[in-house]
Amino acid sequence: MLTVWDFVLSPLYILIIFFVGKNIKQKRIKLNPEYEFFTSGLLLKMIGAVIFCMIYTLYYEGGDTTAYHQAAVSLKKLSFYHTDIYFKILTGNYIYEYLGYFDYRTGYPQYWRDPQSFLVVRLTSIIEFFSFNSYYVTSIILSAFSFTGIWKLYRLFCSYYPQLIEKFTYTTIFIPSLAFWGSGILKDTFTLTGACWFTFHIHEAVIKRKSFYKNIIIALISGYLVLKIKPYIILSLIPGALIWFAFQKLKSVGNSLARAVFGPLLFSIVLGFFLILFSSIKGDLGAYSSVESILNKASVTQKDLKQDYNKGNSFDIGEFDPTISGVFRKFPIAVFSGIFRPTLLDAKNIVMFISAIENTLVLLGVIYVLFSVGIFRTYTIISNNPIIFFSILYAVLFSFSVGLSTSNFGALVRYKIPSTPFFLSGILMIWMENKIILQAVKPNK
After folding, report:
1. Under 8 Å between Cβ of 320 and 330
2. pLDDT at residue 309, rounded to an integer
3. Helix (H/G/I), strand (E/B), else coil: 347
């Protein structure tokens, strides 16, 4: 897997991308002080991609990520012999009828039976045209592209709390797990990027009302790609986003009586819109198209990940019935697992140990905020701030889904990253809001 191109081209591509990023920073930092952290964040993502590649080529000796790369190279090679077929595969959901076009010259792509995984292959094949079929270079380019997503989310949070410009870097762009697991050729890199793009551009269109059609189109494309790769992420994002926008609209109503009358109506409209939207994308949800199928999938997936071939790297939140009551009895432990595990007690190898250190710091930070702010005031702050409400709600729903259906730490550390920057930034914003409240009441003492 490791070739001479990896050694020659990887440093060159890192330098080129870094200097492009430096040029962007110099042009924008005067008006946008947050760009002070642009190149350091970009460089961290690319370094994370290199370390990720080294782990998978030298330690694990391959995995899903290298298989995605090999399949993408095969698909790219197909374009040299059958350009029209390549574009049909690239823009369509079906490959079965075109399998006969692959031969010894192109190689034979994996994952063609799995539309969700093959979408990663299709998207990665585009990058292969610029990477000379190098696994490392492809990962570096992808990491630079994925940085645009987390950067957009960082800037979104900074627009609400400019006094936290530096601190937000530690809850978004400088998170070690995101720099590692969110930089390689994996589903999670694409879904993290898509979730961030979706959030930023839907906010620009609906809340800021800037370039409405442009931002809506970008948001829809981003959301659609996330939907096609991991539908449950969209099912976690959309409810919070809709409530966020309704909440923001309601706060703009000055009269308290009008809010009391308008509030239930507005949230009824939001609920109706969600049901219509859910119905319209139902065909793309697969196993997530109904409550019954979602519960059955969670139960089956969790049982599968606890089988003998996962022993030593698995955990158990306990059996549950595939019913609403059975699932919600597992809500606290599933959310805890989805956010804070693996813990130091769970770690059995170096990769899990590093993740456990990060999770321990996150847990200590959350405990500190909850104790310093107080449970009641924390609830009040979340209830009164749409951006905080959205970030925490999405993170909790997502973590519940992941914690409920995942019983393997190797999968968990990857699956959880699309919600991590939302959750950590939400906790930081709670701390900041409490600080603002304390400063406001201080003169009255």
Report:
1. yes
2. 43
3. coil
Domain C-terminal end among 166, 181, 196: 181
**Residue 155 is which amino acid?**
R
Give the integer Cα–Cα distance in Å for 130 and 117. Answer: 21
Of 96, 91, 144, 85, the C-alpha closest to 122 is 91
Question: What is the dihedral sign for C-alpha 324, 330, 334, 335?
Answer: positive
Structure tokens at 238: 């959309």
Number of neighbouring beta carbons within 10 Å of residue 300: 13
Number of domains within the chain? 2
Taking the chain (445 residues) in runs of 10, the rounded mean pLDDT of each run is: 79 96 95 96 97 89 91 95 93 80 90 90 95 94 97 97 96 94 94 95 90 93 91 84 76 62 64 64 54 57 52 65 72 90 86 90 96 94 91 92 81 90 97 92 62
Residues paired with 314 in a beta bridge: 408
Burial group, residue 29, by CB count within 10 angstroms (0-12, 13-18, 19+): middle
Q: Domain containing 35: what range?
A: 4-181
Could you give the C-alpha distances from 397 to 76, 254, 304, 367, in angstroms and in order? 37, 31, 22, 20
Looking at the structure, do residues 177 and 321 belong to the same domain, yes or no? no
3-class DSSP state for residue 184? coil
Kindly report the length of the chain.
Answer: 445
In a domain, 386, yes or no: yes
How far, in Å, CA of 128 to CA of 137, rounded? Answer: 9
Q: Which of 133, 158, 181 is the last residue of a domain?
A: 181
